[in-house]
Amino acid sequence: MDIKQRPKTFQLIQNSFSTLLLDAIQYFPANKRRFQGETHGLLFGVGKDDGMLECDYVFPVGNVKSRTPDTIENDPKIDLAITSARSLLATSKYVGTYHSHPNKEYFFEWAYPSNMDISFAKYVKDPTMIIIALTRSGKLKQELQLEVRKDRAYQFSFNSKLDGHDLPDQVELGYDISYLFGSFLEYTFEMRAYSYNSKSLLNMNLLSSEAELLNQLGQYKIKVDTLSASDVFRLRKIEYNLRENNERRGKNTEYHLERLKPMDK
Ligand SMILES: [Zn+2]
């Protein structure tokens, strides 16, 4: 596929951001000495002509056959999930895979692809890939804190001389991309998106209307678990309006949020 035709921005809509985060947390290793709690799953959505890929559905596959500290090997379970989903899901298309990088502590390149991740992308013919790096940093269970951060874009290419766990060869592409960084409960996490061009993984912009909605709810001190069914319908409208490239983007967000605000006693 021509590089210009590939989507440049990956947007997590509906409940896709929260599903990715919850799945990565669920598989985070309970035993600190055994860092093998990676999770793996499939991403579904639809790419648009304007370079935007909207992901609206996430299918967790869970454990994979062989897990080592930071690799995922090919697994018939994933193959079967991809094949079955491709023939059954009609309103969303298979757009790629995700997996987590659970770590003992934060380091800057923790959500970069490993050498092995590039061979995996080649194996499943992944158009896109999301990597969620996370660590259990705090003791206190905290509410979601989230920010969109910027980094230089790179092209990551397989280096046969290096180990599967090593960072692959990197070439800077000369522009910036966005990624998501935040904390939730006692975890700190980072999500980055990549596209695959049949040779290398390249950074994409990663955005999320759902994450932005959750951020806004936090600012308005609105607790998700106290909302009624009619409130949820209001939130759906807000999330829809927060999608990037939506002509109504951000419209009426404040109006709707004011109506959800907890009453002053
Ligand atoms: Zn990886």
UniProtKB/TrEMBL annotation:
Could you list this entry's UniProt keywords, alphabetically sorted.
Hydrolase, Metal-binding, Metalloprotease, Protease, Zinc
All copies of the JAB domain together span 32-134
The lineage's top-level taxon is Bacteria
One GO biological process from the UniProt record? proteolysis
List, alphabetically, the InterPro entries matched.
JAB_dom_prok
Q: Which Pfam families match?
A: Prok-JAB (PF14464)
Q: Which Gene3D superfamilies match?
A: Cytidine Deaminase, domain 2
Q: Which GO terms describe its molecular function?
A: metal ion binding; metallopeptidase activity
Which named protein is this? JAB domain-containing protein
